[in-house]
Amino acid sequence: NIDSTLHYIHNDSDLSTNSSFSPEEERKSKVQDVVPQALLDQYLSMTDPSRAQTVDTEIAKHCAYSLPGVALTLGRQNWHCLKDTYETLASDMQWKVRRTLAFSIHELAVILGDQLTAGDLVPVFNGFLKDLDEVRIGVLKHLHDFLKLLHLDKRREYLYQLQEFLVTDNSRNWRFRAELAEQLILLLDLYSARDIYDYLRPIAFSLCADKVSSVRWISYKLVSEMVKKLYMASTSTFVVDLMNELVEKFCRCHKWSGRQTFVFICQTISEDDCLPMDQFA
């Protein structure tokens, strides 16, 4: 009986979540039958500004930390109960609250499914991308986990924004760039050969010339995986163009560090069997 009721609520709520409610309807929209209603009402009241000031300044952070668990318990059919609270927390003045949500938005996307994610989470995700580095790192660490849940056309929109991750509030924050290189390796599976060549290649080459060796070492792996991916693609011209650019940009570089980078990239390509040996030669 519960399953059939939840199925009915789910179908009904999809139609009603976007409409504007009167105060009475707003109260009814937060009613569900999974947990005691008083318990949910108590949880939702945690984001009340007056309560947060008088009770505990950290209460909003605790609320944000618990939200994916509450969403999982209630199920996606009852997301309408939490939507307003989530948006309130996502725009909280404290960056620690927004950071907490940024680190868990990919988990919430799995719970809600692609339709609700596209409508309610993508705008929040886009806001986090332009936030402080402390918030952006939460999004960056799970970039692949979130983007793989989106439809291809929506996913491609983020290709234009990946370049922005190279810029940080503090240029000495090299771990941010290292994390970007790690995520780009995973993202290779989500995009076509042309997208990899047009958008990810310039970022990878920039990371290969980073001032910090830890970032460069991850970037060598990124380039080698890129070579493998482009070689396996049906259009082989991309991998030839990429290898020619590696020779031109690094092998013939007037700086010794550039020529050293070329050797390390060759080493990685060879060790990981990214190319047949005749093609490598």
Give a quick summary of the entry.
By secondary structure, the protein is an all-alpha fold. It has 2 domains: 23-150, Leucine-rich Repeat Variant (Alpha Horseshoe), CATH 1.25.10; 176-280.
The value of Rg in angstroms is 23 Å
CATH topology of the largest domain: Leucine-rich Repeat Variant
As an assembly, this protein is single chain
Mean pLDDT: 86
**Uncertain segments:** 4-19
Number of extended strands = 0
Largest sheet: none
The first-to-last residue Cα distance is 67 Å
**Roughly what percent helix?**
over 70%
Gross CATH architecture of the largest domain: Alpha Horseshoe
C-alpha geometry? elongated
CATH class group of the largest domain: Mainly Alpha
Query: Given the helix and strand composition, which structural class is it?
Result: mainly alpha
